[in-house]
């Protein structure tokens, strides 16, 4: 199961880098290429949504089938393993949330940057007419 989390981590990282590159001022010469690359990657990155739902279901299933570790019913090593399992589930849920938020941000920022570019082109055409 570790491979799925690595893939999700890399995807979230790639989304974060693309959002950062689209929003950093001063990259105007590269912006058109970045917009084209990002727009082409939005559809493949949409597969993150069902992938995150699958991983969320996996976390839920592990939570439901996890043996309960009450205060006196388990050894210290079992208690520690139980606590580690809870921490990993929380970390993985946070990674899922980050990947989904970064996808939404990437989609929104790309849409806004494309819209701004279109409006700038319209302004230039209106200036050239006058």
From TrEMBL:
The keyword Membrane applies. It is a multi-pass membrane protein. It is found in: Endoplasmic reticulum membrane. One of its GO terms (cellular component) is endoplasmic reticulum membrane. Keywords: Endoplasmic reticulum, ER-Golgi transport, Membrane, Protein transport, Transmembrane, Transmembrane helix, Transport. May play a role in anterograde transport of membrane proteins from the endoplasmic reticulum to the Golgi. This is Endoplasmic reticulum transmembrane protein. One of its GO terms (biological process) is intracellular protein transport. The chain crosses the membrane at residues 6-24, 45-63, 93-114. It comes from Liquidambar formosana (Formosan gum). Belongs to the BCAP29/BCAP31 family. InterPro entries: BAP29/BAP31. It comes from the Eukaryota.
């Amino acid at each position: 199961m570790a491979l799925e989390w690595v893939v999700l981590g890399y995807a979230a990282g790639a989304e974060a880098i693309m959002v950062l590159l689209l929003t950093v001022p001063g990259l105007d010469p590269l912006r058109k290429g970045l917009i084209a690359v990002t727009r082409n990657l939005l559809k493949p990155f949409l597969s993150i949504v069902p992938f995150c739902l699958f991983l969320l279901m996996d976390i839920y299933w592990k939570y439901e089938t996890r043996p309960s570790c009450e205060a006196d019913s388990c050894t210290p090593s079992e208690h520690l393993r139980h606590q580690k399992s809870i921490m990993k589930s929380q970390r993985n849920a946070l990674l899922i949330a980050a990947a989904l938020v970064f996808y939404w941000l990437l989609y929104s920022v790309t849409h806004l940057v494309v819209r701004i570019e279109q409006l700038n082109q319209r302004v230039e055409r209106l200036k050239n007419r006058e």
